[in-house]
Automatic annotation (TrEMBL):
This is Glycoside-hydrolase family GH114 TIM-barrel domain-containing protein. PANTHER family: ALPHA-1,4 POLYGALACTOSAMINIDASE, PUTATIVE (AFU_ORTHOLOGUE AFUA_3G07890)-RELATED, ALPHA-GALACTOSIDASE. Residues 27-237 form the Glycoside-hydrolase family GH114 TIM-barrel domain. It comes from the Bacteria.
């Protein structure tokens, strides 16, 4: 009886996590916050930007790699950056160092850092958080395993849920992130790489799709526009850049 009561109280006190509206139009504003178009229901912004009033807000957190403008921060925590032969392993496409998530101790240390960012998203009034570069293992020169990436992802998702935030999977389309606790997906260029269906298989209409080329956007709209929120953006995600919706 006592155990059942404790469980009931715990469930009652647990924060309510609300995933984004399925199929809602979105704006991907990582390059700078602007007033969203009236049709937009979902706004994704960097963790250092404020949420957009009256919309469903997703907070961007680079959970598995560093931000290029935070080199000084990570040099002070150099042991947590993945290295090979003493040199940081770099995601060349974005100039980002990979975080070293290979051991339980390092994952715990990184979770304390990223966890504070997640807490900040919740305090600022965001509804959800997306964790970028879940697939950093694929750029780690074989140093990071899939299992280690999954273990760290579970930790981050649990922290988000404890803060009342829905958690979004970013990258690794072949993975059904719901087994790790993810509530939705942010899919960059799933039209270009024919991956939208992989995310839909896991999340249904709770897939936020971003395309950067008109032909890919048109193709994604033709196949998935009736079910998913899809936006065309310029690759720089600039404040005044391209924005189109299906």
């Amino acid at each position: 009886m006592f155990s059942a009561l404790v469980l009931s109280v715990a469930l009652t006190l647990a924060p309510v996590v609300t995933p984004p509206p399925g199929g809602g139009d979105l704006d991907y504003q990582l390059g700078g916050a602007v007033r969203p178009d009236p049709r937009v229901e979902i706004v994704v912004r960097d963790r250092n930007a404020p949420p957009s009033p009256g919309r469903y807000n997703v907070c961007y957190v680079n959970g598995f790699q560093t931000q290029p403008d935070e080199a000084s921060f990570w040099r002070d925590r150099w042991s947590l950056v993945l290295k090979e032969d003493g040199r940081a392993v770099v995601d060349e496409a974005w100039g980002e160092w990979l975080l070293d998530i290979r051991t339980t101790t390092k994952r715990a240390a990184l979770a304390r850092i990223v966890g504070r960012w997640i807490d900040g998203c919740a305090r600022d009034g965001f509804d959800a958080v997306e964790f970028d570069n879940l697939d950093s293992w694929s750029r780690s020169r074989g140093l990071i395993t899939r299992a280690q990436a999954k273990a760290f992802a579970r930790t981050l998702v649990a922290r988000a849920h404890a803060d009342g935030l829905a958690a979004g999977q970013k990258n690794w389309a072949e993975l059904d992130g719901t087994v790790l606790g993810f509530d939705f997906a942010v899919a960059e260029e799933c039209g270009r790489y024919a991956e939208c269906g992989d995310y839909v298989a896991s999340y249904g209409s709770r897939v936020l799709a971003v395309e950067y080329r008109r032909a890919d956007f048109d193709r994604a709209c033709a196949r998935w526009g009736a079910r998913l929120g899809i936006v065309l953006r310029d690759r720089a995600l600039s404040r005044t850049g391209v924005r189109s919706w299906c």
